[in-house]
Amino acid sequence: MKSIPILNIQQFEQDVPMSDFYSNDLKSHLERNKGFFNKPHRHDFFLCVLFSKGSGIHEIDFNTYTVKPGSVYFLRPGQTHYWKFDTNPEGYIFFHTQNFYELHFSKSKLEQFPYYYSYKNIPTLHLNSNEIVYLESTFKNINNEYYKSLTYKKQKIASLINTVYIDLARLYNIFEPIKDITSATYIETLRHLEKIVDTYYKTEKSATFYANELNITSKHLNRIVKATLGKTTTDLITERVILESKRLIVHSKNSLSTISEILGYQDYAYFSKVFKQKTNSTPLDFKKSYQ
């Protein structure tokens, strides 16, 4: 099976001895990693990138977004993505592990930020010219700190990242406001649900199973998913299956029937029916469209 590469932070920087954080200006980063960025790959870390110049596309989990000056992108571990550029981009990029952030902010979670709390939230934000100037200065400060050897280096970087995330969350909520009925408890439950779904989606398709794992009723779980995402629990489970099926169809050499079995469907015809209901395309047509 041809698998999608999963990259870790150590692969990007050998000169700075930090295994849980990486930063670079975008031009240097892309030049150094020109063999990676234009091919589908995954990361085992959180990623944030700001484009101050350039144009092109950024595909994240089979959704295509436009790259232009002011584009900011957020990726969570496990997401598949790649870039294609029409004009040379500039800006800044940083990666970090979950522990890097949460070690310094023990009472905070990355999922508190709207762009990280669910895979279903839009992973991008567009800044105006004034916002670009303001945010780029902090990204630059992060990058400068990364390449210096000063005391309290990690603490300073973590503090700057937290500032960036807060500023970006404020702007994000202007364009993608969280519903008033979305309480902190609902968000936390959704976060746990998505993690459990990631673990069991290949074998467990029942909403009841996940409700039992969370020690709540199926009805209440459905209420939470409806309030936070506007869909049912079954929709969420099925969409996770479809996302993985797309990854396998495009990036593996397995037959479609084998992919169906990997995802827990012994009957390929039924799997194909579910896939078409969600994508308006058969698995075979989807595969051909990417070839």
UniProtKB/TrEMBL annotation:
Keyword Thylakoid: no
Domain HTH araC/xylS-type: 191-289
The entry's keywords: DNA-binding, Transcription, Transcription regulation
Keyword Transcription regulation part of the UniProt annotation: yes
Lineage: Bacteria, Pseudomonadati, Bacteroidota, Flavobacteriia, Flavobacteriales
Protein name: Helix-turn-helix domain-containing protein
InterPro entries: AraC-bd, Homeodomain-like_sf, HTH-like, HTH_AraC, RmlC-like_jellyroll
One Pfam family linked to the record: AraC_binding
GO molecular function, one term: DNA-binding transcription factor activity
